[in-house]
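Hi again,

Forgot to attach this to my earlier email, sorry! This is the prediction with adenine bound. I've pasted everything inline since the attachment limit keeps bouncing my files.
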Amino acid sequence: MTIGIIGAMQEEITPLLEHYQAYETIEFCGHSYYRVSLGKKTLIIACSRIGKVYSALTASVMILHFGCEQIIFNGVAGGINPQYKVGDLVLATKLCQHDVDITIFGHPFGYISDGKIFTQSDSTLNEIAKAVAKENGIHLYEGVVATGDQFIHSKEKKEWIQKEFKADAIEMEGASVAVVCDNLNTPICVIRAISDNAGDEALISYEEFLATSAKISASLVIKMIEKL
Ligand code: ADE
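Structure tokens for the complex follow:
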């Protein structure tokens, strides 16, 4: 079984590489992929870089070139559900692209040409994530994740996304990876720890909590890998 783990920022994959320690670095198309051998399991870990295009590229390379049979996205998110606090973990049940706008043609926000606004994550992987969280006494929220090529840092914008998509968290890669996985029949699980609340103070909070929240997310992913 080959499992791909993607983080968008170096901070999001460093806790994984530090944990596994022994890995082979493979350069592919000018980008680094890290191969970890765990007996029957192989992990391919990569930092995709920020945003929908690079994360979709990384997911495609992982599946089509490295043969990954499952993809886990690990990282941080802005919490827009008022219950969410910095450090809380959220498992994406479904994901949308909040910045897709072809409303001029009469379509709803987030609509993509094949008719889907939301892409589902994989229920089997999600059940494993939930079971692992429960076993370890970790609270794991389940929520709708909205993705876009924007770092959200305004109350008005986050409230719009929350209202339009009933979203609980915002980030910049999950939905694009989910679309790739959906099209390539590959199960996807997106786990994020909250780094900020996407409001006016988002940048300060993000800079302060990126590394610690990324570690929280990675630690659940590591426990999950043990179960796969
Ligand atoms: N990732 C973490 N915080 C975010 C935010 N406020 N907007 C977009 N992506 C994020």
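The radius of gyration is 16 Å. The chain has a mean pLDDT of 97.

That should be everything now.

G.
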